[in-house]
């Protein structure tokens, strides 16, 4: 089994087929052969390449200090090269593993254990990354009944609204005609916690001040 230049679609397809039956490029643990192919790819591949993508994420999970300790030899990745599994094994002076299979059940069990430990370590590392919180910036137009409405008092009432995930921002008065101003007020909301419909309904409950509430702008952050 062989794969060609991984910078080409055909080489990627052949690499994906190879990794369908192999955890690593050479042997049963990561080596310089994996590192050389990883660096040749440059970035995570896209498209229908599930085995390459799985292998790439696994190699990427190792720290640089760990990669520097890997044994074996790099796989040539010159354009047009056809590095074979057998060639990688021959170049690997530190690895006597038979790449085409082994009858040593004890060795297979040890390889499976190593894979499980690496997968568990990768999963633990990923779980420590903080989840992204989806937020939106919302600009509201709060319109009074008439020019006699106390706008400062209206804004004061609006800002008394407290919700988990709601943060009030800057505000200003904008003329709408006939001596009437509307209150434009900015807020930032966490999308999973704050319903913008509920927020506008709550503002409109100040019936002595508020005639209506419109969404002037809504942008994801």
TrEMBL record:
Gene3D superfamilies: 1.20.1050.130, 3.30.70.60. Signal peptide: none annotated. One of its GO terms (molecular function) is translation elongation factor activity. Residues 135-221 form the Translation elongation factor EF1B beta/delta subunit guanine nucleotide exchange domain. The keyword Protein biosynthesis applies. Coiled coil: none annotated. SUPFAM superfamilies: eEF-1beta-like, GST C-terminal domain-like. Residues 99-126 form the Elongation factor 1 beta central acidic region eukaryote domain. Belongs to the EF-1-beta/EF-1-delta family. PANTHER family: EF-HAND AND COILED-COIL DOMAIN-CONTAINING FAMILY MEMBER (PTHR11595), ELONGATION FACTOR 1-BETA (PTHR11595:SF21). This is Elongation factor 1-beta. It comes from Stomoxys calcitrans.
């Amino acid at each position: 089994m062989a794969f060609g230049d991984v910078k080409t679609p055909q080489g990627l397809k052949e690499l994906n087929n190879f990794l369908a039956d192999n955890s690593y490029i050479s042997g049963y643990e990561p080596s310089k052969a994996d590192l050389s192919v990883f660096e040749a790819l440059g970035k995570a591949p896209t498209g229908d390449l599930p085995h390459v993508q799985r292998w790439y994420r696994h190699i990427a999970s190792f720290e640089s200090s760990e990669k520097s300790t890997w044994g074996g030899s790099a796989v040539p990745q010159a354009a047009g090269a056809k590095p074979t599994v057998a060639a990688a094994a021959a170049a690997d002076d530190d690895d006597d593993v038979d790449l085409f299979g082994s009858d040593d059940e004890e060795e297979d069990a040890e390889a499976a254990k190593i894979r499980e430990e690496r997968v568990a370590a990768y999963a633990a590392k990923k779980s420590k990354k903080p989840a992204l919180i989806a937020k939106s910036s919302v600009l509201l137009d709060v319109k009074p009944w008439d020019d006699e409405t106390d706008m400062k008092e209206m804004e004061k009432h609006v800002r008394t609204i407290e919700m988990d995930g709601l943060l009030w921002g800057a505000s200003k008065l904008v003329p709408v005609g006939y001596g009437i101003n509307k209150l434009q007020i900015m807020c930032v909301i966490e999308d999973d916690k704050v319903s913008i419909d509920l927020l506008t309904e709550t503002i409109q409950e100040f019936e002595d001040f508020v005639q209506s509430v419109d969404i002037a702008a809504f942008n994801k952050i």
